[in-house]
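Backbone shape codes
____________________
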Amino acid sequence: MQKEHLPIYQIQDFEAQARKEQYFYFSTFSAHLQEHLFTREPHKHDFYIILLVTQGSGIHTIDFREYDLQPGMVFFLSPGQVHSWRLSDDADGFVVFFTQEFYTREYPDKSLFNFPFFHAISDSPVLRLSDGEDVSLLPVLHLLRQEFGQTKPLRHVMLSRLLDVLLIELTRLYRPAEGASETVGKDRALLQNLYRLLDAHYKEHKPVAFYADNLHVTPKHLNEICKGALGRTTKELLQHRVLLEAQRLLVHADLTSSQIAAELGYFDNTYFFRFFKKQVGCTPEQFRAANR
């Protein structure tokens, strides 16, 4: 296992609450940027992030994709994603950090995977609010800000309740990626479990049958669910996860292309290089040169 070549910030680095099960952080975006200048360079987090932009402009880069940062945009980041930004001096908004432990302490039967914007493998990390859509978000954010700055009894309970309301309101506003459709019930649960399996096993298990077997469905049925709900086949979801990690390692790790191929479970370098070039349009070394 290679060492990490990017900073991975923990929520304690942002003066979150001291006890692990309570890890939560809230700030205005402008204050956050002034206090934590190190966040402008590429880095990872081990927690979840919601950022609502209220003013300013710039570029927010998430896993090699650049997004124009403008008022009325909401960004969602899951643990492990690489991001950085270039911002105007007047950039402002609200930023919320929280861990899975913080959320599940009050909601032990719920998962953050229940919310579509935290499906980093398949869904867009950006929500563009239409005029007036922030009316349901701003009151909750102001209450979170107020509660976070106080030391009243049951503070962590109130923060958890308000966070859940914010997540529900965002889910109502969030629009699936192009080519995808709404999923409910068993199909949603199946996809949530698929995301977990892909993230845990994409390096050592490439056949779709492995994931279908673990989900107790046929590969054909799993593929139909993925295609109908996400507009991608199961194989395409797996390939996307492998390619994303390959790109991260090429740009941020001091490893050769052959070492990266082996790290990702490809012991035939030629096959990995052909696969990468077919999917990305350039060789691994060309991608590294263009993005460093």
